[in-house]
Write a structure and sequence with these properties.
The chain is α+β, with helices and mostly antiparallel strands. The chain has a single domain, classed as SCP2 sterol-binding domain (Nonspecific Lipid-transfer Protein, Chain A, 2-Layer Sandwich), CATH 3.30.1050.10. It has 6 helices and 5 strands, in the order H-H-E-E-E-E-H-H-E-H-H. Strands 3-2-1-4-5 form a 5-stranded mixed beta sheet. Helix 1 crosses helix 3. It is globular. The termini are far apart. 22% of the residues are buried. InterPro entries: SCP2_sterol-bd_dom_sf. It comes from Alcanivorax nanhaiticus. This is SCP2 domain-containing protein.
């Protein structure tokens, strides 16, 4: 349940940034990326489509995501995301343990990580 709520709020934040933050909008230029976040069983799941000047966020599974970030379960995902705010190695440790799997283009995940400076409260204006 906590993971589903984090995904919902992340979608709101991404859409707000695409609408209100010039620096964030600049990062969306020349992009057409569908990033999906889900658990291994498939629920909860949410996808985010990044296009120039716009972010669309929808619940459920996308039929053709560019990159998918899979977590072993919702509790693990929530805990890892919370840890990752202070320790970015939390993702690497999860991938090494097989608790996090990436499908698709990992370069797009790396691009998404560059957006963190905008996503976190008090981030770049």
């Amino acid at each position: 349940m906590k993971f589903a709520l984090v995904l919902l709020i992340l979608g709101w934040r991404l859409r707000w940034l695409a609408w209100r933050n010039e620096g964030f909008r600049a990062q969306l230029e020349n992009r057409n990326v569908v990033m999906q976040w889900r658990t291994f069983p498939g629920k909860p799941a949410r996808w985010f489509q990044f296009t120039p000047g716009k972010v669309v966020a929808k619940g459920g599974l996308h039929e053709a995501p560019t990159v998918t970030l899979n977590f072993k379960d919702g509790d693990y995902a929530f805990t890892t995301l919370k840890k990752a705010g202070k320790n970015q190695m939390a993702f690497m440790e999860g991938m090494q343990a097989g608790d996090i799997k990436i499908e698709g283009d990992p370069g797009q995940l790396m691009w998404f990580m560059t957006l963190m400076k905008f996503i976190m409260p008090g981030g770049k204006k």
